């Protein structure tokens, strides 16, 4: 029995918290909320040394690890591996499948667009690059803008049309979800599913992390019941956790945990200098290695841009403004 309890204890590794959210990463929030909805005990840890890793978020427990870039994401891995399954009663319902598909595609695309293309990039910088030196963070940001445009199929010729399509699809998704939810506590079967976790993650990110002039936020605010739903569950799952230990923040990696200002607010009395542990030395080396590899990647990327005569690899002028 004791061994089973140990296996149930998970650690969710995400990008850091900001904007009043437990994690400000749009891919991480749904996983956090999925575990909260399931009442699964877990520790919350932050990774600051791999800002553009597609493995984040990931869940680990002993030798078990579920990465974001494997098997369709962390939530699907938790379900398929039999650890946490909230969808067993709704998986065969066509309406649930279509609603989940809308959230996973139309709303996810709209958030991706606003975060990297349709805004000034301030939110993206704060979430992903604020712990890096400014030149490196800025170049990595421009590189990611280019990648996102490729993912969304945006070119100079179709940029305006694609923007209209993305916002139209998002608006249709909000309308359909608003009708489906009505005044219920959850979208289906009066119980939370992965649909609730993913939508709530998107909605919280839209309301709290996107810039004030966000078009996507204005479209969400047109649906009062979706906003009430979001605020209700934020109070229950996020705000209540800030004063409890149900989702404890912890991390064995000293370079992955933001240090509180209070740690540096006053000089401690003279103490003998502590010898760094082998683990701390290892993670310091990892952080340095990450910066070096990212710098090399940026230099290769810029060399490709400069050497492409036929403009196969190209950044719009607007990306540098």
From TrEMBL:
<feature type="domain" description="Thioredoxin-like fold">
    <location>
        <begin position="26"/>
        <end position="120"/>
    </location>
</feature>
<dbReference type="InterPro" id="IPR012336">
    <property type="entry name" value="Thioredoxin-like_fold"/>
</dbReference>
<dbReference type="GO" id="GO:0007005">
    <property type="term" value="P:mitochondrion organization"/>
</dbReference>
<comment type="similarity">
    <text>Belongs to the metaxin family.</text>
</comment>
<dbReference type="InterPro" id="IPR033468">
    <property type="entry name" value="Metaxin_GST"/>
</dbReference>
<feature type="compositionally biased region" description="Low complexity">
    <location>
        <begin position="240"/>
        <end position="267"/>
    </location>
</feature>
<dbReference type="InterPro" id="IPR017410">
    <property type="entry name" value="Metaxin1/3"/>
</dbReference>
<dbReference type="InterPro" id="IPR036282">
    <property type="entry name" value="Glutathione-S-Trfase_C_sf"/>
</dbReference>
<dbReference type="GO" id="GO:0006626">
    <property type="term" value="P:protein targeting to mitochondrion"/>
</dbReference>
<keyword id="KW-0812">Transmembrane</keyword>
<dbReference type="Pfam" id="PF17171">
    <property type="entry name" value="GST_C_6"/>
</dbReference>
<dbReference type="GO" id="GO:0001401">
    <property type="term" value="C:SAM complex"/>
</dbReference>
<dbReference type="Pfam" id="PF17172">
    <property type="entry name" value="GST_N_4"/>
</dbReference>
<feature type="region of interest" description="Disordered">
    <location>
        <begin position="238"/>
        <end position="282"/>
    </location>
</feature>
<protein>
    <recommendedName>
        <fullName>Metaxin</fullName>
    </recommendedName>
</protein>
<keyword id="KW-1133">Transmembrane helix</keyword>
<feature type="domain" description="Metaxin glutathione S-transferase">
    <location>
        <begin position="170"/>
        <end position="232"/>
    </location>
</feature>
<dbReference type="InterPro" id="IPR050931">
    <property type="entry name" value="Mito_Protein_Transport_Metaxin"/>
</dbReference>
<keyword id="KW-0472">Membrane</keyword>
<keyword id="KW-0496">Mitochondrion</keyword>
<feature type="transmembrane region" description="Helical">
    <location>
        <begin position="289"/>
        <end position="307"/>
    </location>
</feature>
<comment type="function">
    <text>Involved in transport of proteins into the mitochondrion.</text>
</comment>
<keyword id="KW-1000">Mitochondrion outer membrane</keyword>
